[in-house]
Amino acid sequence: MDEVQYVNLVLTEKSIDLFEKNQYILNVDSGSTKTKIKKWIELFFNVKVIGLNSYRPPKKREKRGKINQIMKHRIHNKRIIIKLKPGYSIPLFRYQ
């Protein structure tokens, strides 16, 4: 089974509020598909996923050089919002 290359938990005010609703926000590799991410999360964390929403955060620009400015976009990842079945939670971040 293909693994998801990059997983990082997002900790913001919005994501912490979603812990109460049994939802988690993760950054993943932009080439990963929803089905691959869902299977990987269910196997790795031993949870049941009800829903999965994904979006790409806006690109951020970088300026390089003073005379000849080169505009470059930073690499961005896909952001996933995962909703788990009631009674399940990701073990590292249990909300009680």
Automatic annotation (TrEMBL):
<keyword id="KW-0694">RNA-binding</keyword>
<keyword id="KW-0699">rRNA-binding</keyword>
<dbReference type="GO" id="GO:0003735">
    <property type="term" value="F:structural constituent of ribosome"/>
</dbReference>
<dbReference type="GO" id="GO:1990904">
    <property type="term" value="C:ribonucleoprotein complex"/>
</dbReference>
<keyword id="KW-0150">Chloroplast</keyword>
<dbReference type="GO" id="GO:0005840">
    <property type="term" value="C:ribosome"/>
</dbReference>
<keyword id="KW-0934">Plastid</keyword>
<comment type="subunit">
    <text>Part of the 50S ribosomal subunit.</text>
</comment>
<dbReference type="Pfam" id="PF00276">
    <property type="entry name" value="Ribosomal_L23"/>
</dbReference>
<dbReference type="InterPro" id="IPR013025">
    <property type="entry name" value="Ribosomal_uL23-like"/>
</dbReference>
<dbReference type="GO" id="GO:0006412">
    <property type="term" value="P:translation"/>
</dbReference>
<dbReference type="GO" id="GO:0009507">
    <property type="term" value="C:chloroplast"/>
</dbReference>
<protein>
    <recommendedName>
        <fullName>Large ribosomal subunit protein uL23c</fullName>
    </recommendedName>
</protein>
<comment type="similarity">
    <text>Belongs to the universal ribosomal protein uL23 family.</text>
</comment>
<keyword id="KW-0687">Ribonucleoprotein</keyword>
<keyword id="KW-0689">Ribosomal protein</keyword>
<comment type="function">
    <text>Binds to 23S rRNA.</text>
</comment>
<dbReference type="InterPro" id="IPR012678">
    <property type="entry name" value="Ribosomal_uL23/eL15/eS24_sf"/>
</dbReference>
<dbReference type="GO" id="GO:0019843">
    <property type="term" value="F:rRNA binding"/>
</dbReference>
<dbReference type="InterPro" id="IPR012677">
    <property type="entry name" value="Nucleotide-bd_a/b_plait_sf"/>
</dbReference>
